[in-house]
Amino acid sequence: MKRRLGAQFASGNGGLVLLIALALLLPLVLRNNYDYDIAIKIALNAIVAVGLNLLIGYAGQISLGHAAFFAIGAYASAVLPSRYGVPGLLALPLGALAAGFLAWLVARPILRLSGHYLAMATLGLGIIVSIVLNREVEVTGGPDGISVRTIRLFGLALRGQPLWYGIVAAVLILVVALSLNLMRSAFGRGLRALADSEIAAATAGLDTALMKARIFVLSAVIAAVAGSLFAQAERYVTPDEAGFLRSVELVTMVVVGGMSSTFGAVLGAAILTLLPQLLSGFEDWHDLLFGLILVGTMIFLPRGIVPSLAERFRREPAPSG
Amino acid sequence: MLLETRDLSRGFGGVLALQPFSFSIERGITAVIGPNGAGKTTLFNLLSGIYQPSSGQVLWRGADITELDVAGRARLGIQRTFQNLQIFFGMTAIENVMVGATQHLHLGLLASLLSLPTIRRETSRAREEAALLLRRVGLGRYLDARADAMPYGALKRLEIARSLAAKPELLLLDEPAAGLNPSETEEIGALIRAIAADGTAALLVEHDMRLVMALAERIIVLDQGREIARGSAEEIRANPAVIEAYLGAEAA
Question: pTM of the prediction?
Answer without folding.
Answer: 0.90
